[in-house]
Amino acid sequence: MPKSDSPSPAAVPRVALLVSGRGSNLEAIARAAAGQSWPACLALVLAHREDIPAVRRARELGLPVRILPLNPAIDRPAQDAQISQCLEEAAIDWIVLAGYMRILSPAFVRRHAGRVVNIHPSLLPAFPGLHTHRRALAAGVKLHGATVHLVDEALDAGPILGQAAVPVLPDDDEARLAGRVLQAEHRLYPPVLRALIEGRLRVCGQRARWVGASAAADPLLLWVPVA
Q1: In this predicted structure, what is the pLDDT of residue 220?
Q2: Topology adopted by domain 11-112
Q3: Residue 210 has what pLDDT?
Q4: Separation CA 94–CA 97 (nearest Å)
Q5: CA Rg, the chain, in Å?
Q6: Domain layout of the chain by residue ranges
Q7: Residue 125: is the preceding peptide bond cis (ω within 30°)?
């Protein structure tokens, strides 16, 4: 993987998507990337199992897939080193977690610092970790949503790149709220990735800044009303 602070502008940046589940965010990104003006190549989909919906979706969309089964005989850093090797063999610039459910080791995050992007189903820093919708309902919040962020060594604590907010309705249960947030994720993730890859969204410390003519009105803070 290149060691510079950003992918080379002379080449089309290459993106890998790491998946573990249903693949709906993968599909949202892939459909956005099918446009002629998309600034990167979806060069690899990496999963640990063949029999997951995300892999089926990736193959249906014609994306290159590599299956790297987890080896219980080696520890997590060694497993993550194997992932790094796959990424480097594919000359990957950006690593996009699209429903990837394993926590990456600190060594992996340091090796690819500033290049690993994730989406989390809450308005971070609220509700990091699991069961975000259940916890949001229990807390009685009026707004919930999704956050795209860079991955660092702390759980769900890297710089926030973009957020989408949805209302929490009085009759919501966990499933209804989760469905609304998932729709917001699909609207949020592709434009955040595009802005980041194109250099229109830049990270300074823990803050992401929009550069250029649209800096005054951050386009990556979305409000997603009830359909």
Answers
A1: 72
A2: Rossmann fold (3.40.50)
A3: 83
A4: 10
A5: 17
A6: 11-112, 119-227
A7: yes
pLDDT at position 10 is 56
State the average pLDDT for the chain. 92
Residue pair 6/39 in contact by the 8 Å Cβ criterion: no
Distance from C-alpha of 197 to C-alpha of 192, rounded to nearest angstrom = 9
End-to-end CA distance of the chain: 42
Are 99 and 23 contacting, i.e. CB atoms less than 8 angstroms apart? yes
DSSP per-residue letters across 35-95: STT--SEEEEEEES-SSSHHHHHHHHTT--EEE----TTS-HHHHHHHHHHHHHHTT-SEE
What is the b/e burial string over 59-86, where b = at least 16 CB atoms within 10 angstroms of the residue's CB?
Answer: eebebebeeeeeeeeeeeeebbeebbee
Q: Say which CATH superfamily domain 119-227 falls into.
A: Formyl transferase, N-terminal domain (3.40.50.170)
Q: Known catalytic residues? A: 120
Look up residue 33 and give its two tokens: 């990337």
Give the single-character DSSP code of 103. P
> For the chain, which ranges sit under pLDDT 50?
1-9, 213
What is the reported pLDDT for 100?
97
Within 10 A of 101 (CB to CB), how many other CB atoms are there? 11
Q: Say which residue the tokens 């649209």 belong to.
A: 214
Concatenating the DSSP letter of every residue in 110-178 gives HHTTT-EEEEESSSTTSS-SS-HHHHHHHHT-SEEEEEEEE--SSTT-SPEEEEEEEEPPTT--HHHHH
Residue 170 · residue 148 · CB < 8 Å:
no
